[in-house]
Amino acid sequence: MADVADILNNPNGLNLQNLSPPVQMALMLGLSTLLPALIVTATCFTRVVIVLTFVRQGLATQNVPPNLVLTGLALFLTMFIMQPTVTEIDQKALQPYLNKQMSGAEALQTGVQIHKRFLLRHTRKQDLSLFIHLSGNKTVQEPEQTPILTVIPAFVISELKTSFIMGFCIFLPFLMVDLVVSSVLTSMGMVMMPPVTISAPFKVLLFVLADGWHLVTHAVAVSYS
């Protein structure tokens, strides 16, 4: 893991073209094992999937939509939102490397810097300051100087906070429906009937009439603009 950290934080010392093919293959296979973790933590996937889960919890529809549908939708929304960053990495790092206009170390450094700019745009200053303080790094004067392995955890906790704020806003309308239904049932003397039994169809109807999936996906996408 330390070797991977050295590569990400200081790729200038790495020259992939001077490594033997077996070593290059082993290095690529080792880095590929980190790909799922990078997709979850170093992209907008965390915020998207948590917000979608809050929607399902607010609707109180148990496993509808199922986990596979929510995960698939979150994955494709992540690809859509990350498209400008991926395109920039492809144009400024991957294609020059494939055309032998740039070394492997330079391409990796350029790609990391482009992606780090995306992460910093959506990372709160106090979260970034926390991890810079915990790392004991006293050489960082500007956010752009922060090592990528310090930026990523700061980005993750910023995403968690933002997603929970959005989830709270999503829960409020559904909570109002539950309160109204509960008050009506209490006034009718039907205190033994669970309010969720009556409120669930009304919450689904309200969500459909408001075109809820459209509003939620629009809010998530706009939050990264």
Give your account of this protein's structure.
This protein is mainly alpha-helical and 225 residues long. The protein has one domain (2-222). The chain has helices at residues 2-9, 21-32, 35-41, 45-59, 67-98, 104-121, 125-135, 148-187, 195-209, 212-222.
Shape: elongated
Stretches with pLDDT under 50, minimum 5 residues = 1-8, 10-14
Mean pLDDT: 83
Number of helices: 10
- List the helices and strands in order: HHHHHHHHHH
Distance between the termini: 33 Å
Approximately how much beta-strand content do the residues carry? under 5%
**Helical residue percent band:** over 70%
| Major sheet characteristics | none
Structural classification: mainly alpha
Oligomer: single chain
Give the number of DSSP strands: 0
How many distinct domains? 1
Cα-atom radius of gyration? 23 Å
